[in-house]
Amino acid sequence: MIAYVLGAGASAHAKYPLASTLLYALARWLDKKCPDEPGISDFRTRIQQLRTEFPGVDDFEEVLRNLDSCGQDRIGIASVGADMQCDRDLLEDAGRSLDSGQQEPDDEVRGFYPQYLRDDLASAVREFFYEIASGGVESAYDNFAEHRARDGDTVITFNYDVSVERALRRNGEWDIGSGYGFELFPNR
Known about the structure:
Largest sheet: 2 strands, parallel
Radius of gyration: 21 Å
Shape: elongated
Strand order of the largest sheet: 1-4
Number of strands: 4
Order of helices and strands: EHHHEHEHHEH
Distance between the termini: 28 Å
Structural class: mainly alpha
Number of helices: 7
């Protein structure tokens, strides 16, 4: 049995960005996408809202920590115009206005609800990673799964993506039901 330890950044060969550059890479990817594609316009707005609220913070993990500490109330951003609002935030405003008995939501409130920004950000990252994964890049993980990893070996990864798991699965060396050292989905 051999233990393999894959450090953070081991997926750079497959074009996945480091966590420290994820927001920058995500923003670049969004800039190249057609704004008419589902979600793209809102995803772009979310990046701009993040950059306005957390200027200079490009560390994805720090952004998530900051968002987690914000609670569930709207984060006001004075410099965000009406065109920089996302529908989910506006719908939340309308719902809260109705709950409080107001006739109309406050048109002057600008910004975002952290829970929706976080959710949209996760969706944007998922779409970004899906496009990377379907880009047909010959993966060093495929090579690893085919020529190195064997039944009984241990693979420890510090990556946030699941590229190594996918490659091992394709090669029949790993299964989600037993691959993490405990049984998952026993009735699948």
